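Suppose you are handed a protein chain with no further information: no name, no annotation, nothing but its sequence. What can you learn? This example shows the usual starting point.
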Amino acid sequence: MKKKLLAVVIGATAAMPLMATADVSIYGRVHMSLDHLSVDKQNVTRNVNGSNVLFPNEGPNYSEVNVSSNVSRLGFRGSREVGNITAFFQIEQQIDFNEGESSFAGRDTFAGLRGGFGSIRLGQFDTPFKQARGPANLFGDQVGDMRNLTRVGNARFDERTPNTFHYQTPGMNGFNANIAYSVHEGKTAADSQDGDALSLSLTYKQGPMDAALAYEKFEEDTGRGERDGVRFAIGYNVTSELKLVGFYQTVDYDGGTPAQNDNLSSDTWGLGADFKVAPSTYIRGMWLQRDADASDSQSDLYALGLEHRLDSALRVYANYAWVKNDDNVALTPWSQARTATPLGGNGETARGFSTGIRYDF
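A reasonable first move is to predict its three-dimensional structure. Written in structure tokens, the prediction is:
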């Protein structure tokens, strides 16, 4: 821990000359929740002849209260204008407030340039495919987050890729195009290996409509294997109080055995709504279904929530979400973007009730 702290201090000291000549700000988010999570049956791991073996549905019912830190973060960002060009950077880390743990620069961390040509940047950050869920993302970083169905096992796409180049076009009547290319996963590209990834998106945001269409592909030598996916998300403000959303994703996984490929190749779709019932109070709900190619591997996610914004920086909420699983799948509504992630059970319904507070600064 002392070595990590020393490295952070040295890095910050080295960056002081740059920060002194740039417009630098500190920002962050504290997002904590108290959750009651329950599963009818629990998977357990036992030691068999010296090896850990997973036994699905052989443990007791799970019903416990958990404290969770939900992607709380601290970051530094800055920019400097030089003529018609603006140089910018960001350093962001996750901080788990429930346990005091952190990983410096582990989140979106990059440097780049922007101007009349659009923007370019290099570093590690969310891919255009990951950001494309934004128009339909009603329960982000909460119990009920759609990533509990869209980001499953090795066939996961809501990722932050390292060693990435990203270009975004200037705005064109509400449209923007994005291309991101991750050259390799490790610190050095391996010889004669296909370890790259490509992510593309076209977004539109104007008037009442917010929509995104994205494609992403990881090559065969990436850490989780070869896979590609298409995603479409849309949000439409019917009135100033009512927003309707829709989502669709199809994933083709080809990085394992035929059985593994069938379990991870899937289609996911859903609908939701967000309604402002008072100037600072919202109720929302969403349904999503994931249908894998394997038999008896369908999951349905239902989420309901109430949120009250005390001001622009502080909000409190209460959510109830559950996932109904077929016999060969064990998803939960809490596995993503949280520190409290107990396992689900094949064929069992996983339920979560969460009360949370989020403070942005």
